[in-house]
Amino acid sequence: MSTPTSSFDVAVIGGGPAGLSAALVLARARRSVVVIDAGRPRNAPASRMHGFLSRDGMAPAELLAAGRDEVARYGGELVTDTVAGLMTSANGRFGLLLGSGRGLAARRLLVTTGLTDRVPDLPGVAERWGKDLLHCPYCHGHEVRDQPLGVLGGTPGAVAHAQLVRQWSDDVVFFAHTTRLTDVEREQLTARAIGIVEGTVGGLVVDDDRLSGVRLADGRLVARSAVFVRPGLAGNDDFVRGLGGQADEDGWPLVDAGGRTTVDGVWAAGNASNPRAQVITAAGEGSAAAIAINNDLTDEDVRDAVDAFRAGLPVRSTT
């Protein structure tokens, strides 16, 4: 790793709602902070985000642009890049090598790199993702309320997802796909008037850039206006793992209430550690992590000041 050319109190890896919220709090606390982001947010395919108080219906890109402006206004540095290398130094600091070759150093590290959605490999799925193939009913259910909806099986929790989607429409169909329904699940779906379509799904049918239905492998076509799927979730937490961070039984980084991981000096927030975090939740977790990090830095500042004082060094003014 090259010699760091810039040093910061905190380096934030990931510039989504969690990372930007944390950077804003830290910059306002007069900490030097840098945000490194590759510019590939999870919710980029979505045209609008919902459930964020005072920002309901805003385009995700607009929220991020506003957040970046706010962080920059308080002196935070924003870098569009990737982290190619990460290491700890003898004094407990972190060294970061960016994809561009630039080196950075930081006293603390916050990982807010989000997660990756693993959607079924079926024709039409990738093209309609975030449009009318949806994953979060709390994010998109209201916009497709009372329409003919489908829920694609074949992933863990798909049946429970169908029961949840039923809250937004009386016309819901569960496409079993590769899911083998138990007698209890079948009874529960039937009791709530959720239709069950047996058979493997062949793909989505799109007309005039809109989802019109789901085609089964045997050729049957079931008309639907939108389809929900519960994707597999893979955390983008390689940085925490690479530093020796521990994970829970589901593979997500272990963190305390403030986002502190099991690695000294490293925090995680948002979808990097909490797969259920929506935009507003991730922003809140970022803020909580920033406060915890600033408190931790303050404790270190006090220790360093006392050591210097005892050594007879001049007291550094805080004004």
Can you describe this structure in just a few lines?
By secondary structure, the chain is α/β, with parallel strands linked by helices.
Features:
319 residues; alpha/beta; 5-stranded parallel β-sheet; 8 helices
What would you note in describing this structure?
It is a single chain. This protein is α/β, with parallel strands linked by helices. Helix content is 28%, strand content 26%. It contains eight helices and 17 strands. It has helices spanning 17-28, 60-73, 125-128, 137-140, 158-165, 183-191, 238-242, 279-310; strands at residues 6-13, 33-37, 77-80, 83-88, 94-98, 103-111, 115-118, 133-134, 149-152, 172-175, 195-197, 201-207, 210-216, 221-223, 226-229, 232-235, 266-268. Strands 1, 2, 3, 4, 5, 6 and 17 form a seven-stranded mixed beta sheet that branches. Strand 10 (172-175), helix 6 (183-191) and strand 11 (195-197) form a beta-alpha-beta unit. Helix 1 (17-28) runs parallel beside helix 2 and helix 1 (17-28) runs parallel beside helix 8 (279-310). The longest helix has 32 residues, at 279-310. The protein is elongated and about 80 Å long. The two termini are 36 Å apart. The relative contact order is 0.17. The model has no long low-confidence stretch (mean pLDDT 94).
